[in-house]
Amino acid sequence: MKILITTDSFKNCLSSKQVATSLKAGLLKVDNNHIIDIIPIADGGEGSLDVLSDHLQLERQTVSTKDPLGNIIRSDYALSLNKDIAFIEMAKTSGLELLQHQDKKPLVANTFGTGQLIIDALDRGITNIVITLGGSATNDGGIGMAAALGYQFYDKKNKLVEPLPKNINSIHRIATENIHPMLKSCSFTAACDVKNPFTGKEGTSYVFGKQKGANSSEIKFLDQSLLHLSSLIQNTFGINMNTIPGSGAAGGLGGGLIAFTNAKLINGFGLMKDITNIETHIKSSDLIITGEGKIDQQTKFGKLPYSIGMICKKHNIPTIAICGIKDIKTTDLKEYGIDCIMSICDRPMSIEESIKKAPFLLEETGALIGQLLKISSTLL
User: Nearest to residue 95, comparing CAs of 79, 80, 73?
Assistant: First the structure.
């Protein structure tokens, strides 16, 4: 049997390549007659830069930046071989992966570090920048990034406002006089894996605020703050944030990039699909194994397993989705091409323990799939 393993990364745990390698090892333990291909992939979220670098042979650049809470860190982005395109993964500087659970501070976490990576690329004369969104620790609507680019925010008394989420409601005016001189001549593309709007019950604060550490009152405050910011953006740039699907990506950075860099939003998986030529590989396989760290109701709004599943459905290829946390019924994803969902945590254990044991648990799950295939090749 020809099997293709193409999973996303498991957030704060393993890269997509590590996940796939562990699954493959388990499968081969049971039956080494399978032909198993691995294609690491992402949907625009964390891990995207590694996937892009693997497929495009990008040159990594290391830069000193600030993390979401303002601490100095070493981060990186990548340049194309002919140095005309920069690829930036926002999670590298502004992501949840950089914070411990107890350090999540959604009222102060910001995207300034992402702006610093953009500045480094602009200073090198890069005129085409691709930014992947996802895995953010932030909910600042992109004002941190904008501040790094030279935008300034003033209150009603014409005093500078520190660009933090907790201060958004104090902003009365956005000043553009001191923005980076290369900004207007650079083309920006933002790749995201969600379609959430800037504000509202389906917006970034309500849907993703909790995972960034916000309680119910903070979520309401953050949503109201972004509503205020959207009004400022409308008055300053003539852009209505809440009519743009995906503007809520990465805590509103999607919308911020549209407003402050005139970025074009594209589907993150669409970008990866073209670069990896994944559909061709799927068509020539007998079984697809995909997955991500958590499979839940958000999965069917454009996450990687959904996108892979839809291609598999199109070509009638059976598909297994692997995850760490399963919070959805398989029947809810059947119509999207997912035939089976398997969690690697099929026994009681803490999140910390499951992360620590993830390679073993994935290998064990791969072996289980191998055993099931031995029992019946038509099991799916």
Answer: 73
